[in-house]
UniProtKB/TrEMBL annotation, chain A:
Primary site of residence: membrane
Membrane topology recorded in Swiss-Prot or TrEMBL: Multi-pass membrane protein
PANTHER family for the chain: HIGH-AFFINITY BRANCHED-CHAIN AMINO ACID TRANSPORT PROTEIN BRAE, HIGH-AFFINITY BRANCHED-CHAIN AMINO ACID TRANSPORT SYSTEM PERMEASE
Entry-linked Pfam families: BPD_transp_2
InterPro entries for the chain: ABC_transp_permease, LivM-like
Protein known as: Branched-chain amino acid transport system permease protein LivM
Cellular component, GO annotation: plasma membrane
Subcellular location: Cell membrane
Organism: Desulfurella amilsii
Keyword NADP attributed: no
UniProt keyword Signal, yes or no: no
UniProt keyword terms in alphabetical order: Cell membrane, Membrane, Transmembrane, Transmembrane helix
Gene Ontology molecular functions: branched-chain amino acid transmembrane transporter activity
TrEMBL record, chain B:
Subcellular location: Cell membrane
One GO-annotated biological process of the protein: amino acid transport
Family membership: Belongs to the binding-protein-dependent transport system permease family. LivHM subfamily.
Coiled coil feature spans: none
Transmembrane segments: 6-29, 41-58, 64-85, 97-116, 136-157, 178-211, 223-248, 260-281
Organism annotation: Desulfurella amilsii
Protein's name according to its UniProt entry: High-affinity branched-chain amino acid transport system permease protein LivH
């Protein structure tokens, strides 16, 4: 596949955004950028299954929750190092996704979407009933756990660095997958699964691997987020609304496009930030995001990238 | 022993109310292959419509059902043109998101006007005792009304020309268009009926349990489970599924903590989707 220029501007932009709060030591900005990075990671990784293969994983947040719970529990009960725990959490969630994928990816279209909602709700309800995971109340860190990382302040900075690394890593992986032969196979599944299977693509294996990869990054992000906030509970970790926000971000930016998912996440976070602050709109921000989503789906199904590339054909190589 | 009888009676009665909610979802899926993610929002609207008509207009919850049904029909028909008409032939993602956007708008406005405080409707109906436990008359009325509604839907679908047109479109939209059926009208009316069933079931459920503006999503998820149990698109299946779910909820909770119920329900959902996607009742 021909080489594009997306990473040449996307990566520097990301890195500058990540480094800026570190240099200026601006804590407020760090918090804002942390949330944006989290959203970018989530939407870019959801895009790997949703944008590349066309499988709408409605309950994708389940892997964020599984990763968060796994790594949080390892740190909580065994005092394991943060980096080791989140990696274990990521691998575990991918494994779960791969195994579940063997079964649920044989479903298509809306039925698959319903099944993923079902999986998320089932896991949430199961964890709410497991006593050693804190049941519905969740788990809380003992504050002393941050001592191993040089105090709470340093620990929060550490989680910020990790989130930055994760975001860069997820964007680069998504790009490499898209440009690889594997990615081409995924796109052919999106266009016509039966035809691509006739052409010799192992559709089941391809889909499952894509699903496992798209579960990996959210799981790690969940682990970092749980470490940073110091507590975890089922209704926060398996929040279906957040799952749908991920889909909105991908749709807003442009489905299938990496630059689109990243831009979608950025713009969605910005819009949300503005709406929550405005005095009259504050209580209505749910309704306003619904309206935005409705307008995108009805009038611009390709999202922002779809609109831009429709009018400016030269931008295609820049906005992959 | 009497505990079991009681659980079975309560299960059947509440199962019928669930079945009405699921019938609306099922009709929409059957006719236009759309999973209506705004279903829960409309159930919540029905709950608040019942609440407001009692508080402001002084109706009883049962007389309010008729205006709620008509309003649901009208709102649903309009909602079809707002959210679905343009994207009906697109991929599932578009229809899922479009109906979800509608739900966000309704829930957002609802939260703004009604807040998320819990409310309840007192029907003053009393109850009668059966052995040690009691069954309230309100539940019996809910069960009977649900049965009547299901029967009315059956008569409508099989005996009236519009109902026959709906069934024709659900079997083959292109052929029905060729036979001169106004498919846009049929689709919008079926969406309207689906929404009307959602609002009425909301009103019925509100007469039994306390609710908030967010309660709709609980019953929406139950409706999914029911539709999958009975087979997506099969009206008789929705009733069977509703009864199964109502009975499961009431009988299993005699033995296991009620907190495990969602886990069991959704595990059933996923397993049935995997091994028999056409549902227990489904053909194919």
């Amino acid at each position: 596949m021909q080489k594009g220029y997306t990473l040449y501007w996307l990566l520097p932009a990301l890195i500058v955004a990540i480094i800026y709060p570190i240099l200026t030591d601006n804590v407020m900005l760090r918090e804002t950028i942390f949330l944006i990075l989290l959203s970018i990671t989530l939407s870019v990784s959801l895009n790997i299954i949703m944008g590349y293969t066309g499988y709408v994983s409605f309950g994708h947040i389940v892997y964020y929750g599984i990763g968060a719970y796994t790594s949080f529990y390892l740190m909580y009960a065994y005092k394991l190092n943060l980096v080791v725990s989140i990696l274990i959490g990521g691998v575990f969630a991918s494994l779960v996704a791969f195994i579940l994928g063997q079964a649920v990816l044989s479903l298509r279209g809306a039925i698959f979407a319903i099944a993923t909602i079902g999986i998320n709700e089932a896991v949430k309800s199961l964890i709410s009933n497991i006593p050693f995971l804190g049941s519905a109340m969740g788990l809380y860190f003992d504050f002393s756990i941050y001592e191993n990382y040089g105090g709470a302040i340093k620990a929060i900075w550490l989680s910020y660095y990790l989130m930055g690394i994760l975001t860069v890593f997820s964007v680069v992986s998504a790009y490499c997958i898209k440009k690889s032969k594997f990615g081409l196979g995924l796109f052919s599944i999106r266009e016509d699964q039966d035809a691509s299977s006739v052409l010799g693509i192992k559709t089941k294996l391809y889909k499952s691997i894509a699903y496992a990869i798209s579960a990996f990054f959210p799981a790690i992000a969940g682990g970092i987020f749980a470490f940073k906030s110091g507590n975890i509970e089922p209704s926060g970790a398996f929040n279906l609304v957040k799952s749908i926000e991920m889909i909105v971000m991908v749709m807003l930016g442009g489905y299938g496009s990496i630059a689109g998912s990243a831009l979608g996440a950025l713009i969605y976070e910005k819009i949300n930030g503005v709406l929550v602050v405005l005095p009259y709109v504050k209580d209505l921000h749910l309704a306003v995001s619904g309206l935005i989503l409705l307008i995108i789906v009805q009038f611009a199904p390709g999202g922002i990238v779809g609109l831009l590339t429709k009018y400016f054909k030269n931008l295609r190589k820049v906005l992959e | 022993m009497l505990v079991w009888v009681n659980a079975i009676i309560n299960g059947v009665l509440i199962g019928l109310a669930y079945a009405i909610a699921a019938l609306g979802l099922n009709l929409i899926w059957g006719v236009m292959k759309v999973i209506n993610l705004s279903h829960g929002a409309f159930i919540a609207l029905g709950m608040f419509a019942a609440y407001l008509s009692i508080k402001l207009l002084g109706f009883s919850v049962y007389t309010a059902l008729i205006p709620i049904f008509i309003a649901g029909l009208a709102v649903g028909t309009v909602a079809f043109f707002v959210s679905l008409y343009r994207v009906l032939n697109e991929k599932e993602l578009s229809t899922l998101l479009s109906t979800y956007a509608l739900s966000l708008i309704i829930i957002g406005l609802g939260t703004f006007f009604f807040t998320t405080n819990p409310r309840a409707i007192d029907t003053h109906m009393g109850s009668f005792t059966l052995g040690y436990s009691s069954i309230s008359y309100a539940r019996i009325i809910v069960g009977v009304v649900s049965l009547l509604l299901a029967a009315a839907l059956y008569l409508f679908l099989f005996k009236t020309s519009l109902g026959k047109a709906i069934r024709a479109v659900s079997q083959n939209p292109t052929a029905s268009k060729l036979y001169g059926i106004n498919t846009t009208l049929v689709l919008s009316v079926s969406f309207g009926i689906g929404v009307a069933f959602a609002t009425v079931s909301g009103a019925l459920i509100a007469s039994l349990f306390p609710f908030t503006i967010l309660s709709g999503s609980v019953y929406e998820l139950k409706s999914f489970v029911i539709c999958v149990l009975g087979g997506l698109g099969s009206p008789a299946g929705a009733i069977l599924g509703g009864l199964i779910l109502g009975l499961l909820e009431n009988i299993l909770t005699l033995k296991i903590p009620v907190d495990y119920m969602p886990f069991i329900e959704f595990t059933i959902l996923v397993i049935i989707l995997l091994i028999k996607p056409s549902g227990l009742w489904g053909r194919r």
